[in-house]
Amino acid sequence: MNAESKVTPEHLRRAAYLYIRQSTLRQVLENTESTERQYALSQRAVALGWPKEGIVVIDNDQGQSGASASEREGFQRLVLEVGLGKAGIVMGLEVSRLARNCADWHRLLEICALTHTLILDEDGLYDPANYNDRLLLGLKGTMSEAELHVLKARLIGGVLNKAQRGELKLPLPVGLVYDEEDKVILDPDQQVQQSLRVFFATFERTRSAWATVQVFRREGLKFPKRGLAGSGEIAWQELTHGITLDTLHNPRYAGAFCFGRTRSWTDTEGKHHCQQLPREQWRFLKRDLHAGYLTWEVFLSNQEQLLQNLQGRGGARRKAGPPREGPALLQGLVLCGKCGRSMTVRYHHRFGRLTPDYMCQKDCVEQGQPVCQRIAGTSIDEAIGQLLVRSVTPLALEVALNVQSEIQTRLAEADRLRQQQVQRAQYEMERARVRYMRVDPNNRLVADTLEGQWNEKLRLLAQAKEECESQRRLDAAQLTEQQKAKILALATDFPRLWQESTTSDRDRKRMARLLLEDVTLRREQEIIVQVRFKGGAIQELRLPAPKLVWVVRKTKPEIVQEIDRLLDERTESQIATELNQRGWHTSAGHPFTMRMVHRLRRDHHLRSRSERLRIKGWLTTKEIARQIHCKPSLVKYWRHQGLLSGIRLNDKEEYIYEPPKTDIVAQIKQRARTTFE
Ligand SMILES: [Zn+2]
């Protein structure tokens, strides 16, 4: 069967479709030759008998990758037109490329077969309804897919081979560059190098990413940045928390090469996903492959520290908040030793005093879980207070002042970095000036642009100088001998100040915050208190667990008996006064209060005063008002008139009344008629 015999008049009545596509924009730009080949196919259609104006060109897939049909509008349009029976012939270069993956390809063939549509490529003319032709086309599609697979495998294989040897040239983080032989070296720019060294040293010292950011901000230091893929000129930016974490997590700074730190895949909907893998699952990791800023061991310990910080802060930065009223010394500073969350303070009255409990209850608030830990705070606060008095000694401060002088050395280092920044700005300004000087003054457009750049560089230089100067002034605020003496004197004073009764809770809390970073509590056999000081020093205290409430509250039985007896006649506040007058006091040595009498009565299940009288038949105001047929508000009047006898029930002016005798009731009713009517 020759080509011409496949084309019937029916085919010629329908349109010819020329489908043009190339996979990437780059191919479209560079490979115009293949575009020409594709258009040449339309000449073949004309030769086969289609009129020139009957040729429909579909080329809106130009510049789109051919991997999936769902994104290609042109291909879908083609399928639709063929399905509607509009096409007599479909033309395309290397027809197997029409639809690269098999599902698309088979679908189009199927539709072509059903609608008796012919297919034409450079090799020949096919009729998909014809079994032999279809087999040929199917084979071509499979071959094309196989080709793609081999191509991909070869590419990836090459990459993996290189990666395995650690030779794959991946973009480097700032501070590392490739030399002429593609070896990784430290950035020859001394300022960049120095900044990274200061960065890692700062983390080493503070052990916290956040604190590192703060140090950079405080000292006005900038962090270097290069363009995409480690190229382009160096720029300087503010250090952020994100950059800090990226830098600390990047193993290249430890001289290690790694590949396959993430796993990525495309789901059934064509969406791209990417997931970070734990270090054990990285595909390739080669240590000590090139120069770095820290050793592998330091890198690992940094990772460990970052993980700990994350857990210690409950996944987020803890906010201590300002000191509030209330005696709890450690409010806002306490961490739970079990789960790492911040503990809150709950106050309650105990022995007539406001006492704090430290509670870990975030889960219980948010998810209705039981409280994680609850620890009575009084003894802890006392122990911490003593610890502070012990720690803030002239000797300790002497040490602190020595540390201060070491800090001065570090400030000098920072100053040198800022100086370099000024020098660089100076150099760049010079360069911009020279560029401007060299340009032909008649070329106004270029000259104006260059002048603008020069002015900008001048502004940056002034800014860098200003920053450097102001920071230097701040740093220069060193401690004079006189100030040092003052600080030492204060240390001698500290215990007195701490214990003085005129010092408020809030001031004590402020002092604690100046000295302490945080305090971790954990209840075991005893209470383990881990105190972290501002400088990073750690002290562990072990306190006996507070006794259970009923043991603490054990009041002498004779006192309870006496309260029981007095309750028959007196209110709770009267009892408290009575007991105090007798010189009695609580087990903790405090005088009695109405509240404590109330609590003792409740804890020992003694009947209240009103219960006792009610049992004897005494009446409330309402009840007696009903009996004498008057408003409750008038009951007080009759009591004042001496007709009703009642006694005070409590301190709220509530009375309870003895049941009146019948003649008294009659008398009241009689007098009510004459008085009120
Ligand atoms: Zn907890």
Strand content: 5-15%
- Write out the distinct hetero groups bound to the structure: zinc ion
Widest sheet, order of strands: 2-1-3-4-5
Helix tally?
25
Which radius of gyration do the C-alpha atoms yield?
A: 44 Å
Could you say which overall geometry the principal axes of the C-alpha atoms support?
extended
Helix and strand content put the structural class at alpha+beta
Low-confidence stretches: 313-319
Features:
binds zinc ion; single chain; 22 strands; five-stranded mixed β-sheet; alpha+beta; four-stranded mixed β-sheet
Write a concise synopsis of the structure shown.
With 677 residues, this protein is α+β, with helices and mostly antiparallel strands. It is 51% helix and 15% strand.
